[in-house]
Write a sequence for this structure.
């Protein structure tokens, strides 16, 4: 079974099925009932329902003919000015089929559009208001030019809360006949950080292995170390056991197949749980950021991680 099949299988078909975005759903549903809406800009992290809500809007507005009145483009694939001038304009200039006076163009990941393409899009949004509405989706609203933002009603999506992730997991477990224990649910929420698409992909991988899903399976499939193991590494360093901490860190990286950046991001989360005063925590967080920057610039990740552990040991030895 290919990945992303589950994502499509459990995609919401109605407004009631969209999880974790109640305030946004209520406002959008009001637009749909009136059969009139402005251009929309959905912003927020990945996997929180932006595309799903757009498809629900199309289904509810157009019914069975929604495919004919809905154009979905991924701007990260087709990001140049020609796409806006040709494909988008050709679709926008024709009237909708049915009793809704406009079609919908959904531009996913539109923060990947070049600035020239965004300028062309601005004019297209103005010229075809009678026959077309745009729904733009972006992870970072700051990458969308101000003239486009001013033409849209902006909705900021948030990561899904734990209760909604739990509801999704229970729904999948019941449908796929999986036995998922509570620790596995906690692990899925910790790893996904509110991204339901990641939850579905990890569960799909777990289901291919067996019907019983536990914490160990989740962490191994997600290529994420258990938080306790990362914390153990830091506590060894704080006790001035630098060599032991280094060996433990290497074991964790090898067992879970982690890169230096994966490790440093997990370390950053665990720093807040250490038994240290505020000033020493701030020192380590600053050093963590420095190590992450150096790795992204191409420095040797093992040298950077060892240097960070050395800093942790030095901080731990301070009186």
């Amino acid at each position: 079974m290919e990945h992303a099949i589950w994502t499509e299988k459990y995609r919401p078909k109605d407004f009631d099925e969209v999880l974790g975005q109640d305030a946004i759903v209520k406002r959008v549903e009001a637009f749909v009932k009136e059969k009139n809406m402005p251009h929309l800009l959905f912003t927020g992290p990945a996997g929180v329902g932006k595309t799903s809500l757009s498809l629900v809007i199309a289904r509810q507005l157009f019914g069975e003919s929604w495919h004919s009145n809905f154009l979905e483009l991924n701007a990260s694939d087709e990001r140049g000015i020609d796409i806006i001038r040709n494909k988008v304009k050709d679709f926008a200039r024709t009237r909708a089929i049915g009793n809704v006076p406009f079609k919908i163009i959904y531009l996913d990941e539109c923060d990947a559009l070049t600035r020239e393409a965004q300028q062309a899009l601005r004019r297209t949004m103005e010229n075809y208001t009678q026959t077309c509405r745009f729904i733009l989706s972006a992870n970072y609203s700051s990458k969308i030019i101000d003239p486009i933002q001013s033409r849209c009603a902006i909705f900021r999506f948030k990561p899904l809360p734990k209760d909604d992730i739990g509801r999704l997991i229970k729904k999948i477990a019941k449908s796929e006949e999986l036995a998922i224990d509570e620790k596995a649910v906690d692990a899925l929420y910790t790893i996904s950080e509110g991204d339901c698409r990641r939850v579905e992909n990890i569960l799909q991988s777990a289901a291919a292995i067996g019907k019983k899903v536990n914490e160990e399976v989740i962490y191994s499939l997600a290529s994420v170390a258990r938080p306790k193991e990362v914390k153990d590494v830091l506590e060894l360093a704080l006790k001035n056991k630098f060599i032991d901490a280094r060996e433990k860190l290497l074991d964790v990286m090898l067992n879970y197949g982690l890169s230096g950046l994966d490790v440093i991001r997990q370390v950053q989360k665990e720093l807040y749980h250490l038994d240290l005063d505020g000033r020493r925590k701030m020192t380590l967080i600053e050093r963590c950021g420095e190590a992450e920057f150096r790795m992204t610039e191409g420095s040797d990740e093992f040298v950077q991680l060892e240097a960070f552990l050395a800093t942790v040991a030095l901080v731990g030895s301070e009186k």
